Amino acid sequence: AQSVAQPEDQVNVAEGNPLTVKCTYSVSGNPYLFWYVQYPNRGLQFLLKYITGDNLVKGSYGFEAEFNKSQTSFHLKKPSALVSDSALYFCAVSRDYKLSFGAGTTVTVRA
Amino acid sequence: DVKVTQSSRYLVKRTGEKVFLECVQDMDHENMFWYRQDPGLGLRLIYFSYDVKMKEKGDIPEGYSVSREKKERFSLILESASTNQTSMYLCASSPDSSTDTQYFGPGTRLTVL
Asked: What are the Cα distances from residue A27, in Å, to A4, A64, A82?
């Protein structure tokens, strides 16, 4: 079965510091991995995805993610966090056209 | 830009009522999805449709049914609402393949009293 895990419920960082949101996956075959963000009272917005190729994927709003096959991880990163990055982040893996989501990580960036 | 709209942002219903949640997408996408979102559980797939009149159960279909009579519209039906169906419901659509991005609507927060 395809699944992802987000080991941290919450991540707190100071504005200007690097931000990392962790995700590990368990899949059979090639993994198709996604990151989404949800701002308060909004739907999910797509950030980036890994399908194949370069292990470093760049996405929206200055975010990037590194695919690591040996560690089965797909961590989301931002070099310098903003207060406006405070939101709920979801990692997901695609299986037969459907997405399986992690439980989500709440990111709080303090000024 | 892809636009996915949902008929209501907030809905309050009583136990036993029949509830309809509507979703419309404007990008001619083949696939449409209904998820529910609960704190600490992430999003869980209720039903999925890969073509008009075609549907497939997701991970938690019990207590729900769906209808897709037109390509752009995907309805979620709670035949007899129960309090444990109080949740945020999110609709999504995607073009065709497993690598395609899903695009989400703003969500409907349903409260069943």
From this structure: 8, 21, 33
